[in-house]
Design brief:
- The complex is a heterodimer of chains A (779) and B (402).
- With 779 residues, chain A is mainly beta.
- Helix content of chain A is 4%, strand content 55%.
- The longest helix of chain A is centred in the first third of the chain and has 19 residues.
- Chain B has a domain of 122 residues.
- The N and C termini of chain B lie far apart (65 Å).
- The interface between A and B is large, with 82 and 74 residues.
Amino acid sequence: MYSRLFLLVCLGMLALSSQAQQPGIIRGVIRNPSGNPLQAITIKIPELRKITTSNQGGEYRFTNLASGYYTLIFSGVGLRTIEKKAEVKAGEETFLEVTLQDHTVDLNTVTVVGRTEVQEVNRQAFNVTAVDAKQLYNSTLDLSSALDRVSGVRVRESGGVGSSFNLSLNGFSGNRIRYFIDGVPMDNFGSSFQINNIPINIADRVEVYKGVVPIWLGSDALGGAINIVTGDRYRNYVDASYSFGSFNTHRSVVNAAFTSKSGFTFRLNAFQNYSDNNYKVTVDAADIYTGAYTRDAVVRRFHDTYHNETIVANVGVVGKKFADQLLVGITLGKNYKELQTGARMVAVYGGWNRRGNLVMPTLKYRKTDLIKGLDVTVNANYNLGKEQNIDTLSARFDWYGNSKPNPNGEGRGRSLSKYGNNNGLMTATVNYKLSDRQTIALSNAFSTFNRKGSDVYNENFTQGQVRPRLNKNVLGLGYTYDEKDQWSTSVFGKYLHQSTPGQATFNKMGFGAAVSYFVIPSLQLKASYERANRLPEANELFGDVELVQGNLALKPEESQNINAGFSYGFAAQEDHHFLINANAIYRYSDNYIYSRFNQNQSALVLDNLDGVFTLGGEGELRYSYKKFLSVGATLTYQYLQNQQEYVYDTNGNKVLSPVYKDQMPNIPYLFGNADASVILRDLGQKGNVLNIGYNMLYVHAFWLYWPSLGGSGGGDKYGVPMQLTHDVNAVYSVKNGRYNIGLEVRNITDRRLYDNFSLQKPGRGFYLNLRYFFNSFKI
Amino acid sequence: MKLRSTLALALAAGMLASCAKTESESGNPKSGNFILTVTPAATTGVADYLLTSQTLDSDTISTKGNGVEQDGSYRYYVTHNGKFFSMLYGQGNPGAVTAYNIQNGKLNKLTNFQTETVQAFAPVNDDLLLFKISRNKNTPNSSWYKVNTNSLTITAEGTVNTLEMTGLGELAHFTWIKQVGTKVFAPYQTIIDRSFNTKYPNQASIAIFNYADMKLEKIITDTRISFIGQYFQDGLSVQENGDVYGFSPAAATTDGKVSTAKPSAIVKIKSGTTEFDQSYFFDVEAASSGLSITSWMYLGNNTYIVNASTKAEKLEGSSSIRVGIVNVVDKTYKAVTGMPELTTISSLTTNNYTSKDGKTGYIGVNLKDGTSYVYKIDASTQKATRGLRVEGGTLTAVQHLD
């Protein structure tokens, strides 16, 4: 309040003084060391509390300045912030050209106190964690494994490369979590472009919003959102990597951008994953003829090959009057996946596979200051891709690869389905700066779904009573007041609409607020609240034609999310840096959507549960010593309680639930990570860096079924055992990161790992990663 | 302030969790040789629990902190050759079977072995005969498996074309299977779709196999009744003298509606013959003023405890909640007294225990308020007495193992 008053007084005085004198101007250009102009650089004059950003040509301008000396602070994404003094003379123009040094050399270190953009994101009022992807570029991680290291996040995979995954965020999982790439919802991208096959190198950073999701991510996320920011930091660069490792795993990634002086740009992301996933598992292997199990047989997986290939190409212009960025592009991809097992490892398949492809034209438009203070972003895409489920064998397999004839196919009946979900999506976001501190945002996301397909083995395929069609619209309005580094508040509302021909239409309102307050610059408190809604997905209403059977009676889920936390960073004796983050969460959801088996256990059905409430806490502690050593740990505890007091028994009678107020089963509730890295600089030669890292993952044991039921002694109860894995890696970077060679050993102790009951994950694996990065050229 | 409430919240979470963990183990009765299978009514994460008790006549037993957890709840249970078998019914996947014996009143896991997901199984000699029955005309072969209960392995398997069997262009779907001497009788309903509809609702057939080689010997058909037995209900019974009786629930459907014109009735196949005895017919509907038998248990001495429904209940498709005593020789139906009010009953179990003394049987009763009891039924007086109370789920079977 005070500061606003002060500001008003200042402005008043300024106005008075400028009447007396002719105002002056400061303008200039900001470039990187190779001479390319830098856009979106923030320039501040702290004395006047003036702020602006550079345009696509790197140009900036302050007008109406009273004569005198001013400080200009230049800061930008991953760049070193610098301060310059400049003098303004009445009626004159001061030209100040600035070169900002790249921060890339330092990206391997965790700069605990100095704020990179990643940490800047973390300082929002929302409960958000940003993962700096650049630190992981020399690893072979895909996005899901990178996310698994974030506190509050648990990614459960059913096997090796490309296996199905379920990410949970503070106890919420499945479709409660929405994925975005540069703010564009990924709901309709099909199986060829998902976080379990996108390499980390595609991203600049990954933002994890826990619970409350900001308005500009226009969606019906209920439990949180993950936004993959690809960034466009370099006008011209090539970043290529290839890795090879255990289980015949090959991955390669090429990211490149070429931009001409005139602003014509071509951008390419291409990546590929291949793995036989033929790792060894320990399983009770049945003899298909006698049915006898060999206990704890060690066998190799033999039908689990996965590969995918994806190209994202964009062409367009940057830095034009009408657009900061206007890109038309196409995403092309395909994937192939063999299925080795059913929901339990005792069910073995030898001829079942899935394929999918992705053909998706895209349009991206962005313009800041279309008129002064007004930023516009528009994105559109349409997925023409097809998915196929192929299982035509009539055979039963065992773990040794033997098979015998089985009349009704391998398991769930034969299938040769091919279908397209024909998803379209359009989002538009408008931001208007009312003043330096106040912003209004309006965002709208419209999506459509229309499934068509056939299955030669199933004439009823997609021929149900209701045509699988759906239109969804999410409209959001938000207001933010931001007193930089002091406090900020956001309030927002959302209106959700979904319609299916011949079915009830859903109309839902959601709202929320987030507040952040800096006690001192290094101690931030934050709290947020949201009444969130999640609408039933097309696959949940109509089924996914494979494993999920449709349920048209499904109702939207509603949740109240509360987060409160703090972040505190401090230094001891200059070189010792500490950062502490802690958050508490509360969730209560009505009409909780969960999956259960259908009547004859042949498929999953989504259904509503009265309520589930979650209490949890998570913490993160980091320490770094100079730029030499970095150590960190996260720990998450979450308690999910069943609030369904009455249930329907098998005869449809409402009875008191025997598990009312019991802890929800089959959900990890205590887990954490620890990591350490040592950076040896100028090793061998100046500019060469050796980075040795260690990562540990811990997941406490949890029960498969309700914890309170059954005798827990003597192996009478099923559970997922405690998991503890250790990964180590070493990366040697030559010529300031132009050439990199990395070695990784995952699961070094070769433990048997299970994220899901009975589904064993890969044992120890070795990976070699080669990467080339080059950004200092012009065309 | 904010910090403190954060801590309080975290603390509360911790306390709640520890409360949940320290829930007391209730005073369950001494474990013994009676086995009760219980499915907790819950919406997710449902597993079956096997409880053992010394008595069925009194006391309270619960799944809270008690019982042997079964992986998944779509399970069927059978006791044979001194062993208790827990069979998973799983979406066409190979089904894991766990075999237990009982030692000092505790279930002792012998082994797991793998069979197929089947729709009918029955003890034959020292084997369990399993049938995986086709519901798809394009794949008309149904598979059978013989599981030896001593070696606990599949010893033989084969297929039979259940489309050709009927000669009606409909698939034969065995309601259950029964050993009769050296033969296996498999009564079936004919179906044209996965909803079990038929165009032939007014006839009953039994396929007769020679067990040794599982050769189909004969099909016998009777048009006085609709099909015998019911999906997962054993419709045949072999008396001490070798006579075979079969009941029909008169439940055949066409286009989703009960369409048979025949009454619920009992028919007979004389010992040593493989033909319906046309001189015997017991119209249960007439004798019980309109009830249909939906399942039965033979107590010995020509006496059965039956679960029954009125016509209206049958048309609704609701579960049978009436209990009666049938004597197949006297052709009598007598209602059992002492059961809970009909309006309070949710379901009765059909996989039940009898000591085979000709008069005593136990039946599980699940009430609409969520509580369950075992009732002891004395057929000689047609009286039911409330016994063991079961908490924490729906009772699905009452068994005994020596």
